[in-house]
Design brief:
This is DUF59 domain-containing protein. By secondary structure, the chain is an alpha+beta fold. It is 30% helix and 18% strand. The chain contains three helices and three strands. β1 and β2 form a beta hairpin.
Length: 103
């Protein structure tokens, strides 16, 4: 499986993870800044949250880690949380903006 195929699978997995307070997945919300594949089986995800004091932060990060690590082709996952740049609604996909009534 190519890195591109693995990245596409990871994106599909990220689209199954939701911020409990917002009915849009974390990928379409624009919370995923980078997905880096090292070798063929190691992944680093650079992400943010909608707010630094998000009460569900640990749960969301753990779910990202666990779901990616469950892939048979992945042996190691590193999830890095950043608030630089801070998230804002302009980072959302058009689909997410439409769903939340921003369009």
């Amino acid at each position: 499986m190519s890195k591109k195929q693995t990245e596409e699978i990871i994106i599909e997995i990220l689209k199954t993870i939701y911020d409990p307070e917002i009915p849009v997945n974390i990928y379409d919300l624009g919370l995923i800044y980078e997905i880096d594949l090292y070798e063929e089986d190691e992944v680093k995800v650079l992400m943010t949250l909608t707010a630094p004091n998000c009460p569900m932060a640990d749960q969301i990060l753990e779910e990202v880690n666990d779901k990616i690590k469950a892939l048979p082709q992945i042996s190691d996952v590193t999830v890095v949380l950043t608030f630089d740049p801070p998230w804002d609604k302009d980072m959302m996909t058009e689909e997410a903006k439409l769903e939340l009534g921003f369009l």
